[in-house]
Amino acid sequence: MKLVLASNNPGKLAELQALFAPLGVELVRQAELGIPEAPEPHHTFIENALAKARHAAQVSGLPALADDAGLCVEAFGGQPGVDTAYYATRFGYEKGDTNNVRALLEQMQGVSDRRAALVSTLVALRSADDPEPLVATGRAPGLITQAPVGEQGFGFDPVMFLPEFGQTFAQLPPAVKNAHSHRGKAAQQMLELMRTRWFAQP
């Protein structure tokens, strides 16, 4: 089965492709099909993921999978949330992972509450008009470090410390990260939903 991934992020594609391989699902980035990115005007992950999935399914005529994810920092009332990708631009930096990390660490100077969570919401649709989208959410709580640590991953992985591992996401091997990340947890839920709802034998 071929699914359009409503994202052009190569890191997301690599992670999700590995996770969905057992179902025989092939993910194709929307850019490869000439599909422009959908507007994301909403304030919640689920609303944005649904909007992206509907857009990709509508334009492609194929089933679609969308992921909306971000960092929710306790001391900031859950922000940056859905605006995570553009976080650095709030502070005069260009958009990008490195600048996002820099801006976050600057804003958290002197903040003692370092609790945060990476959150991912996945939405899958059989068609743009599917009245029963599959929805899965994963959450990976941790602590924001004082400085980046580790070379793996992308996004906020170098500053997201996981107490149960005693390491940041950027220090974990990809297979371990995929099993315990917000996106990994959401993808495992989505796999089970797809198995029982889309691929179940009559």
UniProtKB/TrEMBL annotation:
Does the keyword field hold Magnesium? yes
UniProt key word Metal-binding: yes
- Family as reported in the entry's similarity comment: Belongs to the HAM1 NTPase family.
| Functional note | Pyrophosphatase that catalyzes the hydrolysis of nucleoside triphosphates to their monophosphate derivatives, with a high preference for the non-canonical purine nucleotides XTP (xanthosine triphosphate), dITP (deoxyinosine triphosphate) and ITP. Seems to function as a house-cleaning enzyme that removes non-canonical purine nucleotides from the nucleotide pool, thus preventing their incorporation into DNA/RNA and avoiding chromosomal lesions.
Binding sites annotated in the UniProt record for Mg(2+)? 68
Q: Which InterPro entries match?
A: dITP/XTP_pyrophosphatase, ITPase-like_fam, RdgB/HAM1
Task: State a single Pfam family of this protein.
Answer: Ham1p_like
Alphabetized UniProt keyword annotations: Hydrolase, Magnesium, Metal-binding, Nucleotide metabolism, Nucleotide-binding
Q: What is this protein called?
A: dITP/XTP pyrophosphatase
Documented EC number(s): 3.6.1.66
Name the lineage: Bacteria, Pseudomonadati, Pseudomonadota, Betaproteobacteria, Burkholderiales
Provide the catalytic activity annotation.
ITP + H2O = IMP + diphosphate + H(+); dITP + H2O = dIMP + diphosphate + H(+); XTP + H2O = XMP + diphosphate + H(+)
| Cofactor comment | Binds 1 Mg(2+) ion per subunit.
